Target: LacI family DNA-binding transcriptional regulator
Amino acid sequence: MRRRRPTIIDVAERAGVSKSTAARALANGESVLQETRDRVLAAARAVGYERNHLAVGMRSGRSGMLGLVIPDIANPFWADVARGAQDRAAKADVSLLVFSSDWDPGKEESHLRALRRARVDGAIVNPVSDALDDLNRFGLPFVLIGSSAERFADVSSVGSDISQAVELGLDHLVAKGHQAPVLIVGPRSRLARTRFLNAVQRHTIERDVDPAQMVIEDGEYTLEGGRQAMLRVLDRPRVGHISVFAANDMMAIGAMMAVRERGLRCPDDVSILGFDGIPAGAFTSPGLTTIAKPGRDIGARAVESLFDDIEGRPEHGRIYMPCRLVDRGSLADLLRQPRQLAG
Model:
């Protein structure tokens, strides 16, 4: 026989209070004494009672759910963003529905429709589509994340400070004797690629280095994309040590695979700097030196911004979150131990 689902009446009876008092206590009503609230909460745990969030949402106009649409759930950086958003939402007793668009505008639109049908209170989106109207027409409060969000200056958004991060990486490379690294970047269709290259150009010019000296290889933001780009770099005529600054850690790890595949060694023959700070970088051999983005903090801050938007207090601005250097073993110190690669 199926066990009956506990009700608010069961909680009230066990706590020795009225149904209305039990309801106010569970809703954190201010008119309930703390001792009474504690007794009601203990009774709810004892009988296994859970609030009917759908019914509560119908009365309050809120569902207690948020949506998150990220471009690639398989990329550990985006998984970290999702974890930060989930943890912050959970502190407010709010659930998070996570979707991966796979950089596909059609999937992004489908996911937003699903979120609207689920009556979420708002959504956090790394926008794939260039048209803000595509988001506005879904009628949801939303906050944007990632590099793509900078296209929409009038919308609240949260992301890494790419300019600060690139400067941090280039300064570290220069400090080790790497003046003009090869740049392994994403596809030309991605705004993140443009932002990365613009930051590189700005900071190299500030150091009186001609950015035209730098070799640029495009690829997908994946292990295989980095591997193929690095193989093309190694196929070029070269003399001396090769230095690489990859636009994300997945590409950097793929580049390390290509170096090993060609019988070379990192950092003896090739130095590689990554960008993201995913956990896998700590387990490569050698460990990947990288510029770590604050993935979890971005997710958490985006949820806080979305709460503000839902409450009618939108920030309507860009929040830039600083990155940090994680120094491991993938960069040679050419100033102390200059090496030459015959080629």
Observations:
- The chain has a mean pLDDT of 86.
- The longest strand covers residues 270-276.
- Residues 76-91 form the longest helix (16 residues).
- Residues 40 and 190 are 53 Å apart (CA to CA).
